[in-house]
Structure prediction request, 598 residues.
Amino acid sequence: MSLIKLRKSNDINYNKERGLISSYIYNTRLRYYLTLSLTFVLLIILFIKQQFINLKQFTSYDTGILNINSNIKLENGYIITDFNQQDLLTLKPLQPSTINPSQFETWLTQEVVIARNKILKNIKFSGNENEWDNNIPLGVLTASPSRQSPNYFYQWTRDSAMTLNALVSDYFDNVETGQKIQIHDILLQYINNSIVLQRLDNLSGKFSLKDKYKGLAEPKFNIDSTPFNENWGRPQNDGPALRIITVLNYLKLLETNSLSVENFTNPNYHYTFNNELDILSNLIYYDLQFIVLNYEESSFDLWEEIVDRHFFTTLVQFYALEKAIKKWENFKLMYGIFPNNDNNLLNQLKTTHKVLLEYLLSKDNFINPYKGYVVESPNLLNIRSGLDIAVILASIVCHPSKSIINSDHLVPFDVYDSGILNTLYSLVQSMSIIYPINHPISNLNIGVALGRYPEDIYDGVHTSEGNPWFIATTSAAELIFKLIESYRVEEKPIVIDIWKTKFWSLFFHESNKFPWQKDLIVTIPYNSIAFNMTLDNLFKYGDSFFEVVRKHMSHEGEMSEQFNKYSGFLQGASDLSWSYSTFLDAIRARNKVQGLTA
Ligand code: NOJ
Ligand code: NOJ
Prediction:
């Protein structure tokens, strides 16, 4: 009763209260809407900021050429000389190797010998000709000895060039004198056979100016050097460029050692050339013509599956032109004439070189700000992610060891380019998940088994499920060792834009104290404690890719094309030449930096 009374007597208050309540409700609603719209505004600001950062990333993309002045950045950013007091970045611990270091070194040394011998076995040359059928010319290299499931007993322009390029570089290492002579025989016989192959009309085209020398893009030939006339993914426009790279590297090798072609043209065998001029005029000249006349054409990629203007094809063409321009200029300087007496080719090479550079660096093509990594086939993003180990392969073949082949050229997409490093990072992320053999190690921050590209379904014989490849896993190691070399040999600081180059997050923990300074640049000065610790970790990371290879090759040291993504066992073409040559390349890159600790 009294309560009701009270209520009644407090009517005014009651109504006031109601008013308060309703205004409270009104306020909460208002607050709700306010928060909602504020969130919206924030989201929009974030979106705009993101676009701006993307744009920034877009315009400040490290093409390698721009990176040359990286020292300038030293004054601006955050500097770390050792990791003790610093809290912006700290080094992630790396998982210790599962094998003891001396056993590992022994294994590497043994495997180098095995790889060299396996490659020699896949080439017919004057040192082993009796082991091969008579109808097979000298200088022929088979992709693999496998004749069925799959039949890889053919000669591919790409596989031959890549494999022999490794032998040429190998020459600079301490191979024995006997093996050095063999390398000359093999290279000259390869050149001889290539001159024959170039002139074969085939399903890609003819050897004629009228047909723009399109026959040179034929990807593979029968082992007896006759055309292969069945269906295939043709043309493949990387072949002539790769051959130019290999042959010019060989001619450079002769020059550096004060040797000449004439010293090695074995009189017992018939060569269609007598000297360097003949090689430039009869072989390299036409491969160059092919590039000049066809560089804008789409073609099948190095994996023989899709048609586009690919990053791999374009970069190797650019690099081949770069080398050829130098060669043509020097040749003219020394001998007063141009190969084939053609005074126009050099200018054509220079024009094409310029256009290709612009194309390589153009925005929204291979460089795609929304991806972070370099896109292999930019016009096929509807069917592919564009993520492909071909990008890494292109970077390493076009950036030979700084201390071997005197490289005063400016070829973009060097091994420290942020897009190249992000490509490796993204491949590691993706393949840690898609290959079950990586699952037990995917959290350990060590190298994992890598394949060609995430969408791959080629199992080595048919199409079912894609697997890791030896060349993919080994080339990751090569990239890392070349990265170390570029810091040590060029004595440059490690400049890290951790947000832009996600690769570095494999090695550093980022402090959350600086959440908004996403575009902060951290510099680790050359030869500082932090520098040496970082490079030590990079070296171990490189080795961990070799660990994967060691685990999955056969007990006899054999490598096929692939290894099974569930079981890790060898799969696909056995004794693939290219698997062994990539291994040699990667070991050479490792040897270059092994002694270089500060
Ligand atoms: C399909 C594969 O993906 C490709 O790389 C290969 O060259 C051909 N099949 C022929 O084996
Ligand atoms: C298939 C690979 O995709 C291709 O790049 C290679 O040339 C051939 N196999 C031969 O090894």
